[in-house]
Amino acid sequence: MNEQRMAIDDEYTGEVSTSTPPQRRRLSNATIVKMSVGPMDNNAYLVVCSATGQALLIDAANDSDRLSQMIDENAPSLSVIVTTHRHPDHWQALADVVGGTAAPTAAHRLDADPLPVTPTRLLDDGDTVSVGDLTLDVVHLVGHTPGSIALGLTDPATGTVHLFTGDSLFPGGVGKTADDAAFTSLLDDVESKLFARYDDSTVVYPGHGKDTTLGAERPHLKEWRERGW
User: Fold this and answer.
1) What distance in Å separates the CA atoms of residue 81 and residue 46, rounded to the nearest whole number?
2) What is the pLDDT of residues 115-128, one digit of tens each?
3) Residue 2: its pLDDT value, please?
4) How far does Cα 212 stand from its chain's mean position?
5) Closest among 130, 82, 134, 133 to 108, alpha carbons compared
6) Closest listed residue to residue 203, CA positions, set 194, 192, 212, 190
């Protein structure tokens, strides 16, 4: 643990890197801290319930020391760690963070086996994850991996949905897929379960890189399907 407290930028832009401080966005009922970790600039998200201090970590991807410091200083109680999918760059720090916090873990059942920590809870499409007074919707998106998930948190004051999509949706397209069938599956799921369900104000927090909104990406869905990636 570093003796100096971790600096967090409260001027939230959604653009972070391993060389910049994490950024914090404040909702009416929660805070979201976004940190970039590891050689692949993975995004890890700490969601803290403002009323209770209970917290959720999305993807203990890498840099366990930095993640642990962020948790120690900003999450009075870590309720659960959710892994969005099975790819190793999203769970390199999972065992260390669990070892340091004893927090339960969760992942979709189809992506559970490769993880270094057996999930305490197996998730399915339509489930919810409760963290203090917060409720996040679980959306299963098949294609990047068999068990990829997104998590949706609604701000009750504004109605805005904050959607953590792992590697299933980014600015400019869906995540990488192994073949045409997987691409079609992923884009079909993204269209029917995200774009058809949530409105344009929905903020998308991807597993790497900058944030976006469904409104910014919606006009390009046909283009993505035609190009095949």
Assistant:
1) 9
2) 999 999 999 999 99
3) 47
4) 13
5) 82
6) 212
Element holding 143 (H helix, E strand): none
Burial of 3 (0-12, 13-18, 19+ CB in 10 A): exposed
- What's the pLDDT tens digit per position in 4-25? 999 999 999 999 999 999 999 9
The pTM (predicted TM-score) of the whole model is: 0.97
Name residues of the chain where pLDDT drops below 70. 1-3
Interior angle at CA 179, CA 178 and CA 180, nearest 5: 145
Instruction: Estimate to the nearest angstrom the gap between the alpha carbon of 151 and the chain centroid.
Output: 7
H-helix segments, the chain: 64-74, 94-101, 180-189, 214-217, 221-227
CA distance 159 to 82: 23
Taking a C-beta distance cutoff of 8 angstroms, is the pair 93, 43 a contact? no
Q: What is the DSSP letter of 195?
A: I
Give the angle subtended at the CA of 59 by the CAs of 57 and 64, to the nearest 5°.
85
DSSP 197-220: TS-TT-EEEESBS--EEHHHHGGG
**Pairwise CA distance, residues 60 & 68, whole Å:** 10
Residues 11 and 24: their CA atoms lie apart, in Å, by: 7
Q: What tokens were used for 68?
A: 């642990």
* Percentage with pLDDT > 70 across the chain: 99
Beta bridge partners of 208: 42
CA distance 72 to 69: 5
